[in-house]
Design goal:
Helices cover 26% and strands 29% of the residues. It is of the alpha+beta class. A hairpin with a 2-residue loop joins strand 4 and strand 5. It comes from Sphingopyxis witflariensis.
């Protein structure tokens, strides 16, 4: 089974698998601030490296483009990785897209799509403890620390938990 989420749309994003035509844009948004955090990305991340990543996308490792609402500008990437009994998500976004809520909106949409299409699936993410912005994003979309180390050196493992379907008001 391919773990592609096909196409998702939110108010500000269009999310679909990366295609070969995305290589130049992907290379341009994947700078040192990204490659220093993502262990499998080479530095510098060239157009050839982008083509290789896109060509290898499929099956258990699918990289999705996060575009603007018109579907033209590449703002980021969300990877969905099928691992034994669970899905791992990872992401990176262009410097120009950071701090605007785009990543939160897109990651939340991918999580919602995974939950809807794969009921009961476990969803995890890994994050460096010092990466405050990424940890905050993961918390906003429902991830909680597991207390376990991630598979990659220097990473902590987080697990997604559905928000309760109720609200308690305290007077």
């Amino acid at each position: 089974m391919t773990d592609t989420l096909l196409a998702l749309s939110t108010e500000n994003c269009r999310i679909a698998p990366l295609h070969a035509d995305d290589a130049r844009a992907l290379a341009s948004i994947t700078d040192e601030t990204v490659t220093s955090q993502v262990h499998f990305l080479p530095t510098p991340f060239t157009e050839a490296a982008a083509r290789a990543l896109i060509a290898g996308s499929g099956g258990g490792d699918v990289f999705h483009a996060v575009r603007d609402a018109s579907g033209t500008e590449l703002n980021g990437v969300i990877g969905v990785h099928s691992r034994a009994g669970q899905y791992e998500i990872g992401y990176w976004f262009a410097a120009r897209a950071r701090g605007r809520g785009i990543a939160t909106e897109a990651v939340r949409a991918v999580i919602d799509a995974l939950v809807a299409s794969r009921p009961g699936c476990a969803i995890v993410a890994e994050c460096r403890p010092e990466n405050d912005r990424s940890r905050a994003l993961l918390r906003r979309v429902g991830f909680v620390p597991t207390g376990l180390a991630g598979r990659r050196p220097g990473r902590m493992l987080l697990s997604w938990r559905a928000a309760p379907a109720y609200r308690i008001d305290v007077c």
